[in-house]
Structure formats: structure tokens, C-alpha cells
Amino acid sequence: MAQGILDQYCVHGNMELEDIRELYFKDLWARSFFQNVIDLDIFYRFDMHDLIHNLVQSVAQGECFTVKSANTKDISENVRHLTFLEAGQNVSTTLQKLNKVRTITADRIDIDESFL
């Protein structure tokens, strides 16, 4: 939704984005992109099919990156979405050179106050 992929007006009339998202999800589910789907009312829990997961990783290679250790040096300057796997990493030096990053996902990371 945040990337502007869901076309609210051209295809679906005047539907809310959340309803359009639901239509897309159920369509992909029906086509077996997702498996073991559990509807938990406010969200779904599911597994992505292995082949789809591999395809997505290949396509998103330049935009998404998973940092497995604080010493990672091979992050592309074009990366937009970062995931930090190690808790307690100090990521300030990593983030300073990455000015195109839009999302950061981590359980717990350390950021120098000077970076903020």
C-alpha cells in the first residue's frame, strides 16, 4: 500500500485501500502464493510458497537487505529496506552512508545519540 502499488480508483472504483488490499491478498492466496493461512481477525499469519519467496528475493535484491552482523560492509547505497537480525547492533555508522533507506526493521538496535 505504501509503495503505491494498489490502484484505488482505476480498477476498483471508490473502495477503501484496506478493502482493495484484502482483495489482492485473497486472490494471491487462491493462486497458492500463500500457504497455511490463519485468519486472526486483525491480520493473517501465513507461509509464502518457497518458489515465490525465492522469486521475491531475487527481484528485491537491490532494494532490500538483511544485515546479519554489525560488521557487514557490502550493503548497496541504493538499498531502501533494511532488516537487522542481531540484537544490540550499533547501526549508526552503517546508516550514515545509506541516505535512500526508507524502512528499518529490528528487534533491538543501538543508535548513537549524535546520529539522531
From TrEMBL:
Task: Cite the Disease resistance protein winged helix domain residue spans from the record.
Answer: 1-56
Which Pfam families has this protein been placed in?
WHD_DRP (PF23559)
Keywords from the UniProt entry? Repeat
Protein name, entry field? PREDICTED: disease resistance
**What's the source species for this entry?**
Prunus dulcis (Almond)
